[in-house]
Amino acid sequence: MVSFTIRKRWLILIPAMLMLQQIVFGQHHNKPDSLLLQLKIANNDSARVHLNVELSRFYSTDNLSKALHFAEDAVEIAGKTENNSTLSFALLNIGNVYFTQGLFELALKQYYQYLEIQKAEGNKKGIASALINIGAVSLNLNNFEKARDNFEEALKTFEELSLKSGNSKYSHEIITSYNNLGIACQNLKEQKESEEYYRRGISLARKTIGQPTLLANLLNNLGSLYLDQKKMPEAYIAINEALKIRLLIPDKNGQGQSYRTLAMYYIGLGNRTKALEYLYKGLDLARSVGNISLQSFLIEKLFTEYDKTGNSDSALKYHIILKALNDTMNNEETQRELTRIELTSQFNEKENLRKIEQKRKEVQYLAIGVSMLLLLAIISLLFLLSQNRLKRLRLEKDNANLASENLELEKAVLKQELDLRNKELTTNVMYLVQKNEYITDIAERVISIKKNLSDSNSNVIDKLISDLQSNSDDKVWKEFEIRFQEVHQDFYSRLNARFPDLTPNEKKLAAFLRLNMTTKDISAITFQSPDSIKIARSRLRKKLGLPQEANIIAFLENV
Q: Are 1 and 217 in contact (CB under 8 A)?
């Protein structure tokens, strides 16, 4: 049982179940040599954390330096595991080590960190247990309102959990909360509320098997409250019942606490004989269990009582004992205070180093973040540039497609225009053919008339016929050639370039064939017989290097 010095020094604060169980656990398990050997061969972080915690518990009562060393190692290893359950275990342990040595501010930091993890995990029992431990620290720091708030919140949670479970699983925690709330309210002078909490705790403890220590503590605390209220009969009943329970357990330290409270009861009644009797009984037990704080209180009361009665020798005796005991306590307290200062300094130094490391990491993370932002900006810029380039390429492609479409349209227009001109040219040629046929017909008629004319007139007719045929041939061809060149400007130049050995008549024939004219039409326009045209066509095919099966017209269209 961990005792605490608060304003009402005879009140017994019940620590959180987790805290009490873990301290006891460490004191009754393996020897340190065995634990150190196991720690040396442990092959996983979880096992190392638990072994360090056990070692810190083992040394928690007699070697604070070692206890903290192992507790800190446990926290450090647990922090690297990223396992909240393991880290919580280590934090609660180091908080308990600080707490038992009176380093309440340091313990508070660990408990709050433990509390945050429990909240993040949604562990209601862990949250409530953390609040009880925080409340215990607040009581020791005389922050009674804060302690009361923490205990009330813990009690509410434990009652909800108990209601859900439908059994007495959380009775111990609820009883503990009632007791500690009673102490907080008693120190806040809220006597009515304090009595109500004590009575609730006593009622539940009576119904719960295996809770005699809790029941005795509650009864003793209720007795102290009645003493404050000058309710002497009620105080005696509660204190006496607590003593009977402690005598049965047995609980020597608790018996000493009961004797102290009974002594205060009889001092309140003015019964110095009974008061001295219980002061002596309490002192004997306090000495046997080594409770220096209780010894100091009882010796001080003995000195006061003997001094009041004028018993100088006894008063002097206990004054000397008290002075020696106080000197011992002061020396021990001084040593503890120096230890606290040293440990607090070490903790602050480590905390500063941790903050520096955290700051370094933050700067590193910031640098990484800035780098990532810059990289993202560069990627975004490159993406925008690529999108713009893609848009430009698409635009160029669209323009090219448009240009291609325009070109195709122009080609189509030119083809239509060419077809139109070819049609016009063909029409003109057909007109020339018809005209030539008409001239030929006239010439033939004149020839038929020539038979009935004299020789002199016959010569005139022959010359007329010759002029008609000659002029018609030249005019027809020249007119055809002009119109053909207008439509097919580069035909002759390409034909000459590829086939320079062609004769003028062969070129004419090639032009006629280019227009897909028939042998009959060509015969009519050239005044040659169809057979002659066929022969000329065959010679032209050979000069062009075309096989018999090749289409000469298709070939000339592609020249």
A: no
Phi, psi dihedrals of residue 350, rounded to the nearest 5°: -65, -40
Rounded Cα distance, 411 and 534, in Å: 35
Residue 20's contacts (CB-CB under 8 Å, 6 or more residues apart) are 1, 2, 14
Q: Which two tokens stand for residue 102?
A: 């009176």
CA distance 284 to 370: 71
Number of H helices, E strands in the chain: 22, 0
Encoding tokens for residue 266? 């009889």
- For residues 146 and 136, give the distance between their C-alpha atoms in angstroms, rounded to a whole number: 10
Distances (CA, A) of 442 to 322, 445, 446, 456, 457: 170, 5, 6, 20, 17
Q: Is the pLDDT of residue 14 over 70?
A: no
Candidates 450, 445, 433, 446; CA nearest to 522 is 433
**What is the chain's length?**
559
Q: CA angle at residue 552 from 548 to 556, to 5 degrees?
A: 150
Q: Which domains does the chain have, with CATH numbers?
A: 1-136 (1.25.40.10), 443-557 (1.10.10.10)
Please say whether the beta carbons of 188 and 144 come within 8 A.
yes
Contact predicate 239/272, CB 8 Å: no
State yes or no: pLDDT of 504 exceeds 80. Answer: yes
Overall pTM > 0.90: no
Six-digit token pair at 420? 């139109």
CA dist 132 and 134 (Å) reads: 5
Distance from C-alpha of 69 to C-alpha of 53, rounded to nearest angstrom:
10
The two structure tokens encoding residue 51: 């072994």
User: Please, which contacts does 191-196 make with residues 24 or more away whose CB atoms are closer than 8 Å?
Assistant: 191/225, 191/228, 191/229, 194/225, 195/222, 195/225
Q: Is 94:61 a contact under the CB 8 Å cutoff?
A: no
Tokens of 338: 């120096």
Give the pLDDT mean for 242-252: 91
Q: What share of the chain is helix, strand, coil (3-state, %, to 5)?
A: 85, 0, 15
For 237-291, give the DSSP string: HHHHHHHHHHHHTT-HHHHHHHHHHHHHHHHHHT-HHHHHHHHHHHHHHHHHHT-
Give the CA count within 13 Å in the CB-facing half-sphere of 107. Answer: 24
Mean pLDDT of the 378-390 span: 87
- DSSP calls for 304-371: HHHHHTT-HHHHHHHHHHHHHHHHHHHHHHHHHHHHHHHHHHHHHHHHHHHHHHHHHHHHHHHHHHHH
Integer Cα distance of 78 and 72 in angstroms: 10
